[in-house]
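Form 7-S
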Amino acid sequence: MLNFFYQNRLGKIVRPLLTKQFVSKFLGYAANRFVSRYFIPSFIKTHKINMTDFIIPEGGYKTFNEFFYRKLRPGSRNIDFDKNIITSPADCKVFAIQKLSDDSTFFVKCCKFDVRRFLKEKDLAATYQGGTLLLFRLAPQDYHRFHFPFDCVPSKVKFIHGKLESVNPVVYQSGVQPLTENERHLITLNSQNFGHVQFVPVGAMVVGKIVETFTPNLFYNKGAEAGYFAFGGSSIVMIFKKYEIKVADKILHNSQNNIETAIKMGQPVAKKP
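Output:
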């Protein structure tokens, strides 16, 4: 389907309609209707989701969206609480750029990442040149709540409006850069060990909503819930200043070969050098 929308001539004509906010809002509305619950069993079976990891309400999920942003059972994820370790904020696939520059690319050489365009603040972007970027991509079958990757105090959310392109690697291969095109929520995490870190949930095609569940300017421990994505795939981008972190060897090696690394929330992705 993505190949059709991003590679096929007819698909490219149709795709702009799907990236509009009103389409995602409509699909989000449908996923919140009672009848949508009947799609849950086939979705679980198709994607082989282990439901023993999740809290199932008495009487089951009332809608597909309630299932989609389901909560984890306590203890179902092992969180590394070492203060010098950065953990994954979500169940996802992670991709790293160890040294950000104007020539940094994702998956294909033609798809460059413009940190100034991404953050929408020239002076802020300048402080992260040469820093490290971690991209966490959530597929529709993943657990869709996201968590703080270290002890921190989160800022108030800055909303950056945009389209809702898919975030699948197929999209980058078509020359589209969804990270600088899509709706995103800019949050600064203030931390003792890693300084000021940009933490940015990014919307995607058919994402109904990004919801933050934290209170700005309060302290949160690593692993505490930060928010969730309603129906659809999505991403989280984290940007660190130069020399602040060292990415895990496996993740860095895979990323240099344009390969994402599957990971669970709470597992280590980087550490203090």
